[in-house]
Amino acid sequence: MPLTPLDIHNKEFTRGFRGYDEDEVNDFLDQIIKDYEVLIRDKKNLEEKNQKLEERLSHFSNIEDTLNKSILVAQETAEDVKQHATKEARLIVKEAEKNADRIINEALSKSRKISLEIEELKKEAKVYRTRFRMLIEAQLELLRNDDWDKLSEPFEDEALQEHDSSEFATRYRD
User: Fold this and answer.
1) Predicted confidence pLDDT, tens digits, the chain (174 residues)
2) Per-residue burial over 99-123, b = 16 or more CB atoms within 10 Å of its CB, e = otherwise
3) No. of helices (H) and no. of strands (E), the chain
4) Rounded CA gap, 23 and 29, in Å?
5) Who's near 32: CB < 8 A, 6+ residues apart?
């Protein structure tokens, strides 16, 4: 066990025949006591300082551990978000491709339908044109017919002509 300043102060030496000067020894011991007290105070201050530094180190170690854990959680979360975004992007692309295929198929179907309608209209136009040509040709044939020439000839039945003209005059006089 280390000596305390009180131990040094209370220390009694036996006296010998030719011993040291008692005042000189006491002065030296007083000096040792003062130095020893300073050393003890310094040691105590250093121990307190060391304890505070250890507490701060422990505090910062805890903060470091917390930060490391937070970084790991953030990295895991970022990875999860990235995977989720990638998965969602794939789903969006699949849906867009599906919609594009559907739109293309609908457009092709409409195109085929319109093509069929165009062909049908062409057939109907051809039939109409043929019928119209036949009608015109029939009308031309009627015009070429000799019966038109007979219409321009005078009436052969004069009695019919007189009867018609007297009826005409009576009808429009009134």
Assistant:
1) 677 777 777 777 777 777 777 788 888 888 888 888 899 999 999 999 999 999 999 999 999 999 999 999 999 999 999 999 999 999 999 999 999 999 999 999 999 999 999 999 999 999 999 999 999 998 888 888 777 667 666 655 555 555 555 665 566 555
2) eeeeeeeeeeeeeeeeeeeeeeeee
3) 4, 0
4) 10
5) 8
Task: Give the C-alpha separation, 41 to 5, whole Å.
Answer: 11
- For residues 85 and 94, give the distance between their C-alpha atoms in angstroms, rounded to a whole number: 14
Give the span between the Cα atoms of 21 and 128, in whole angstroms.
155
HSE-up (13 A, CA, CB side) for residue 127: 6
The one-letter amino acid code at 95 reads E
d(CA 43, CA 40): 5
**Phi, psi values for residue 145, rounded to 5°:** -65, 145
CA distance 172 to 165: 11
Q: Which residue has the tokens 């507490």?
A: 55
Contact call for residues 29 and 9 (beta carbons, < 8 A): yes
Single-letter amino acid, residue 120: E
